Amino acid sequence: MYENYENQLSLYVHWPYCETKCPYCDFNSHVNENIDINNWIKSFSNQLYTMRKEFIDKNIKFKNLNTIFFGGGTPSLMPLEIIEKIIDISYNIFSFDRDIEITLEANPSSYDGKKFYALKKLGINRLSIGVQSLNNRYLKFLGRLHSIKDVDIALNEATKIFDNISVDLIYAFDGQNLVDWTNELVSFLSKNNLQHLSLYQLTIEEGTKFFKDYNNGLIRKIDNNLAAEFYDITNKVISEFEYVKYEVSNHAKKGFECIHNLNYWNSENWIGIGPGAYGRLWSSENKNRIEYQNYKNPKTWLSKNLYQTEYEKVTELNNYEADADTLTMGLRLCDGIKISKLINKSIINFNSLKKLEEQKIVSLKNNILKVNKNHIIKLNSIVDFLTNQ
User: Fold this and answer.
1) Does residue 253 sit in the same domain as residue 350?
2) Can you spell out the DSSP letters for 211-252?
3) What phi, psi does 189 have (nearest 5°)?
4) Are residues 225 and 353 in the same domain?
5) Domain tally, the chain
6) Are residues 257 and 345 located together in one domain of the fold?
7) Quick check: 174 and 222 in contact, CB under 8 A?
8) What is the pLDDT of residues 174-219, one digit of tens each?
């Protein structure tokens, strides 16, 4: 990625604590515990100042910080003092775009109207709410602490405070009825004015409770053909409510695409602070991609960053690794990817590309490589075929 040395810059802040650990979750999350707020502020601050030094030392070019994303875990459980300090320091050392997007994730079970008014005053201007299911029985199956009534209350209050709200939903799992899901989705979208939707088919990830349950025969994976039906009908419903599909699992009203995630998918620069967070930056000096990986355990991360910053691993990605990431992430976007972003285009097997073009699975036109929207559900196998040397 050398066509624009001043790449976009995002900041991801990871808050590792939740009220409980969901059975499907493979993120770096832990059940809530007592913390020393001042120590957490010091550690987050040290990471930010260290990254500023890295930008100078490695001649990393950027314009201003254009997004901040508080993820987790459940960031709505973060003390306001920590959020305020992170935003203030970030502004002082990186500067903000005039229309910076600052997102915070929240759950209906931890929604607090007074706190969210305070968050709005601190600069949070986008809320991402983990609704996950529109059915009380499935909420219980997914290990969620909230009910549909909680969802209604949280969204009703949130829309009074924020004008950019996204909702996460999980669907297409064993035991879920396709007709019920369709009706629930239509009803939900009819009564809620949302700007963005992230819809993920349930995957059973190693290390989760669901993975153990699956191995013990307690739950099953959904049939691939049925999963495809869920995907097709979901996209049809979403489009009828005037959401534009811009990525494999993400849909937005016009102008409300998630800028932070677009920076990921477009392989821009981003900083990651907090337990388990990682960042990737383009070095203008060496023309390579550098990855910074934080320690996952919250106590370990805290001890390593309280007085000075220490990463678990700093890796200079080789050209193939950087290109593979750029290609895989970029092809998730419905608009595709500029192949000029690749360091070495030989990562693409052009014989394979020709075959996919002939079958109208992908297209390459005016430097843009993209997957046909009717085939994007098969993205992983398409990327494997494209890069098979």
Assistant:
1) no
2) HHHHHTTSS-PPPHHHHHHHHHHHHHHHHHTTPEEEETTEEE
3) -70, -25
4) no
5) 2
6) no
7) yes
8) 899 999 999 999 999 999 999 999 999 999 999 999 999 999 999 9
